[in-house]
Amino acid sequence: MNSGIGESSALPHHFAGLSDWLSEQSGATNIIVNAAQKLSGGAIQENWLLSVSVGQAGRWLEAGDSQLVLRTDAPSSLSVSHGRHEEFVLMSVAYAAGVAVPQPFALCTDLDIIGTPFFIMQAMSGEGQGRKLARHPDRSRFGGELVRQLGTEMARIHAITPSEKALSFLSDLPVSMSPARHRIAECRQGLDALPQGHPVCEYALNWLEDNLAVWEAENSALTLTHRDFRTGNFLVNDGQLTAILDWEFAGWSHPAEDIAWLCARCWRFGNNSDIVGGLAGFDEFAAGYESIAPNSIDGNALPYWQVMAELRWAVIALHQAERNNSGAEISLELALSGFMAAEMEYNMLALIKEVSSGAGGGAL
Amino acid sequence: MKQTLPRRAALIAAILREVEDKLNPAKLGNRYSHAMVRRALSILQRELDSEVSGPVGLDYPIWQYFGEKENDANWLAGALRRRTITNQSHHEVEAVLTKYVTVKLATYNPDFLDQSFQE
Questions:
Q1: Where are the domains of chain B?
Q2: Does residue A4 lie in a domain region?
């Protein structure tokens, strides 16, 4: 999205067939794709900002010059992330539910068009880079209202339930297993696939397992969860939230998983006292969330899901490093990710110590 | 760490590719910043420095506590998974792990450690 311009804007050769396809899909005519700029961010997916000129308007393309975003797979997609078809459906459901997402316009699964599946969505304005947002000079002015908006939007996502037929493909959660148990199993599986042992992660997993009775919330209804709702995955324009991005990990879970992920220390970019994404405090977030879903935040579960958040990110980071270290994909960003895992390990141990000392009842 | 050599080779490969990309006019605007390359080089420098100062692995807090050099991070990870080592059997295991993480951070990310201790 508009989180920054990456590669040069000359139209890539494999985008040559886009104009005709856009015309077919939108009903607009005389479409010319003038330029395509790869947007920064997105190690797993690629986002391209398309500059198009349109002769005659169609269903979702106005006449004249406009911009669209094309989202497609990066060279190294993760098997755990949804494909573009599923992500398009997820965003369509969220958009219909009133969640602030870019309007998804059209999906293409035909590999003959650009070589990979992709979809076209509305181009949104705003800053997306987490570190820039957390260090914005006006953050103290807009942070409180921003996290209130984040709470409102997250509650809207969590109002979507498994009864939503369009999302029937989200069946990754075994019926007999709570989200908490499922995540523990996933993390252990992730660690097993690494060449080295990671004792801090193992210790934290045992601790989470030993305390399941506190946080697994077996009787709690499952809701749609974004599962990557954090600073860096939403756009902010002049202090206002404009769009929630990157739906590739969404699934059914306990709402506390999303809240804890947003509040995880690894996503505060150094602003550790501003619990919600390094932007502001928890009260503002809770006020926004509970304006949509009153009395629904499970404060007891949050510190446990925060430990899980650190764990999950550590395992992802270690896998990213392994992709570089194995030679599968040489990338400096991937190589450095592995060195960040120790930060998450530190956070896990600190959280465990705090909870064991009696802290809790809310995000830490 | 036993995997240091291949990891270091992979890191060097990634840095070289990054520098090459930065020097290639056709790839202007590459997403990785100079700051990132500097961080990678500083990590590499620390690894080389530690090699000069002696072949001491970063998991020494673990094998020092558990008595044998074979009892390293890999071993402890397995023992924790099998639950042959627990909080009940070894009350200090959490403290040992904290020391182990602190050594890793002091080596690779002292800024994070400084920031955490200031709070």
A1: 4-52, 60-118
A2: no
